[in-house]
Amino acid sequence: MTDETGAxxxxxxAFEKIRRKMVRLLALSIxxxxxxxxxxxxxxxxxxxxxxxxxxxxxxxxxTLPAGARVLETSLGxxxxxxxxxxxxxxxxxxxxxxxxxxxxxxxxxxGQNEKIxxxx
Length: 121
Hints:
By secondary structure, the protein is an alpha+beta fold.
């Protein structure tokens, strides 16, 4: 209760001790929530930045294809790239050394009549 001047009477010492404990618990809870919020925001910023993308440094050397060739499919493995390439009416699979960009092997694809696999868009 308040007196005529608006001041509250002093609290019971046991109640004042409990009030101080509650204020400390509230401050600790706010601090823990703040640290958790900072951790979550840091993780979101870190994930949204993503890995740095480099072109030739991680990918290897450029690959030289025959004139008029179209790449239909690719497959990436450790140290090697498989390319399905169309040149004119023929198709072949090229095995390319990833670091050097050199064509290691050529595998021509031979189709019977009307058995050509549709090209990828």
